[in-house]
Amino acid sequence: MKFKVNISLYGEKAILIDWPKEINEEISAELLKVQGYLKEEYWDQLLDIANGYQSLLLCCKNTVTLNLLEDIKSKLGKIDFNNYKKTPTLWRVPVCYDFDFGIDLANFLKLKRLSLTDLISMHTATSYHVYGKGFLPGFLYLGGLDEKLFLERKNTPNLKIPKNSVAIGGKQTGIYPSQSPGGWHVIGSTPLSFFDIQNSPPSQIEVGDKVKFYSISTQEYFKIKTNK
Amino acid sequence: MLTPKVSYIEVVHAGIGCSIQDGGRIGYLSEGIPMSGFMDFQMAGLANLLLDNNVNAAVIEWRLTPPKLKFSAPCQIVVTGIGIDIYLNSKLKEAFRVITINENDILSLRLNKIKGYGYIAIKGGIQTEKILGSRSFYSNITKHSFLKKRMKLPFVPFIENTITKQFSKINYYKKPSKVIFVDVFKGPEFELMPISLQSGLCRKLFSINTQSNRMGFLLNEFIEGHTNSIISSPVLPGTVQWTPSGKLIILMRDAQTVGGYPRILQLTENSISQLAKVPTNGFIQFVLIASVV
What we know:
The structure holds two protein chains of two kinds.
Chain A: E1 6-10, E2 14-18, H1 25-41, E3 46-51, E4 55-60, H2 66-78, E5 90-95, H3 105-112, H4 116-123, E6 128-133, E7 140-143, E8 158-161, E9 165-169, E10 172-175, E11 180-182, E12 185-189, E13 210-215, H5 218-227
Parallel strand pairs in A: 5-13
Antiparallel strand pairs in A: 1-2, 2-4, 3-4, 6-7, 6-13, 8-11, 9-10, 9-12
Chain B: E1 8-13, E2 19-21, H1 41-50, E3 59-62, E4 68-71, E5 75-80, E6 84-88, E7 91-93, E8 99-101, E9 106-111, E10 118-122, E11 152-154, E12 179-186, H2 195-200, E13 206-207, E14 216-218, E15 233-234, E16 239-242, E17 248-251, E18 258-259, E19 263-267, H3 269-275, E20 283-288
Parallel strand pairs in B: 12-20
Antiparallel strand pairs in B: 1-4, 1-11, 2-3, 3-10, 4-9, 5-8, 5-10, 6-7, 6-9, 12-19, 13-20, 14-17, 15-18, 16-17, 16-19
């Protein structure tokens, strides 16, 4: 492995694997490979593996034994994880940056002293890395936002942010997979839905994938929405 | 053979915060989907076992205000919980014991002391829609987050030969104690606390805020505050988070899957169920246990 990890117990039935405390794509990539390996190698002992930016949490079926802990430690030192590398999918996501959808768009531009054209060109320039999911079922933690677009979350959250809203919160940007309260600044909306609980897994976009936004008009938005 | 009638429980009064729960939604943490499931695995498990059900079969869970229910068909049920009076058509019944129900019977529960979570299990389990392997209610996953008035909860039609004949009963009697001890392990960020706090934490009594729910129990008392934040990391039911203001949150079954507050303690599985039994006016005290591994 490229990075030094720390393996420790988390309660009686879980094991935490920690990478260095930083956010970067190299750590994310290694973590995913290790996750793929552990899932395959220990499927009979694991209930689930949760992932954060720089850690994996292995939830075990039974109380963790010293044997299991030592076994994982030694395997992580030996295995060539490159066999578990997955090619990331690039998702091109249409966004309508319109003031009707972007309920906070006007305020955002004012606070950041930006024109709508600037915002669109900055927000659509990056291929965002999917570091994880959380906060809401299927909510993507996207990294790589242009620092000119950083804006602290609102002090008072909106009670109802509509499903498929595209928003900025702090140093991150994301898509709301369902209607929810939230403190992020909504700048637009996508006509496509990437989260459906009737599917298993419910999100099409996987951790490690890339997301790139492109701008569409209101007409295109409704065309895509009705053609779905 | 007669076609079995559609059997369901009709919700007459929804109570407050009542839901359907089972053993939980396992395998979707990395999708950001919480495990959910019974707040008190022991109480729910007892109810199911008395009916010879799978221990993880779906049941009705309540906390402060239980529901009132009407049964469309005969069945058998068990009610578990502390400090409840159970009435079937205004006739008093016992908890922790199989109750035989006839068509159109009405079940109402009264709490004589405000206690923790309680359960109504039914022979064969409640058969509401299973989503991602579980019937546990959760906002944006299942259609409903709570029981609603007039909702119809289907159950397996009563078949004579599956009747539970062993009317075993559990004498569940625990003198309600004012302080409940909660076993904890050190969490990943335990060492972020100053030494004085690390040793003092287990000598302090904490009470549970009335705003607490299935997502988490907020503790009323302040400890020292801090300015540490961590990179959003996985959390589990039973994780104790240390907020910058110095308040503690014990994450429960519906907790979000990742969090950014230091994770200072982790409850044992058993302690999570114990915590679900803490009365609203009760206190808890942490007991730090060393891990065997």
